[in-house]
Design brief:
The protein is an all-alpha fold. Helix content is 65%, strand content 2%. The protein contains 13 helices and two strands. It has a two-stranded antiparallel sheet. Strand 1 and strand 2 form a beta hairpin. Helix 8 packs antiparallel against helix 9. The longest helix is centred in the last third of the chain and has 30 residues.
Length: 294
């Protein structure tokens, strides 16, 4: 068996052979997501056409009585079957078998996350504002899979040499304390509303330190507990959030519209409206409100 897969992207890089299932899963996930979005866009664009459909033209899947079957149903079935297959292969399965199962898992996961907003809202909001949650979920899944492929491990503190070579109580205690500090920093970052920093920081620990030190996002629980009685700090958090989020929101709106089938660069009014929707000060805790009233 080859020890690694040599990938030539203009710089020397290799991926361990054992990570082949994850690579194939990510590729299948991305391809399925974009193919699915393309097909759904085609069906929506031709929904009002009276022209007879050819056998090869995409169409909605329907059951008896006009029941529309969303592709999330197919995705759930594929995820369950491939998941059970990988659990079964965990004992005696090899990389090729895991790779085949992971491809079906990637296809199913893409179909499920493409309609994540439908599951979240229990309503068909695919083309509405709330439907953007599906695209956000896909971004998170791709980011996590990419970090895993690159070799980042959220549990890397258990893989360091001291844990493997030194079995003394002192060494194990030091490693566990380091793990506890890492998780504590992650909790602080998440309480500050920095989900992406917390997510990536579990793979790249210095990001957790930076995220824990910097200002909280103004709507986060941390700001609610610590900033509502400090208006100057809350104002700084709001100004900083608006300045940092503006280019992110512009890129996010453009990319989401492009994936959703309506590529256009958002105008300033649209960006300001989205910023007003996303950025707001956290309300004061109830006990503090009671004290002020009392």
């Amino acid at each position: 068996m080859p020890a690694s897969l040599e990938l030539d992207f203009g710089f020397p890089h290799s991926i361990p052979y054992s990570r082949l299932p994850l690579v194939c899963c990510l590729i299948a996930f991305i391809l399925t997501f974009f193919v699915t979005r393309t097909i759904v866009r085609y069906i929506r664009r031709n929904a009002g056409s009276d022209a007879p459909r050819r056998w090869w033209q995409p169409r909605n899947i329907s059951a008896g009585g006009g029941l529309h079957i969303h592709h999330v149903v197919i995705g759930v079935i594929l995820v369950m079957v491939s998941g059970v297959t990988m659990v079964t292969l965990a004992v005696d399965g090899g990389v090729p078998e895991f790779t085949a199962a992971s491809i079906f898992f990637g296809v199913g996961a893409a179909l499920v996350l493409d309609e994540f907003a439908l599951i979240l809202h229990l309503s068909d909001v695919y083309w509405e504002e709330d439907g953007r949650a599906s695209v956000d979920a896909v971004f998170v899944a791709v980011a996590v899979a990419g970090l895993l492929i690159m070799g980042f491990n959220p549990l890397s503190f258990f893989d360091i040499d001291i844990w493997q070579s030194d079995h003394s109580l002192e060494a194990r205690t030091a490693v566990l304390l380091g793990a506890a500090v890492t998780l504590l920093l992650a909790v602080v970052v998440l309480l500050k509303g920095k989900v992406w920093t917390g997510l990536v920081g579990m793979f790249i620990t210095p990001l957790l330190v930076v995220g824990a030190i910097r200002l909280s996002r103004p709507h986060a629980p941390w700001a609610r507990w610590r900033y509502t009685s400090r208006p100057r700090k809350m104002h700084r958090a709001l100004e900083r959030e608006r300045w940092l989020r503006r280019p992110v929101v512009q890129a996010k709106l453009w990319l989401q519209d492009a994936i959703s089938g309506m590529p256009k660069f958002p105008d300033d009014a649209t960006v300001d409206e989205q910023l007003d929707r996303e950025i707001h000060a956290a309300p004061a805790p109830r006990d503090r409100i009671k004290q002020e009233i009392g």
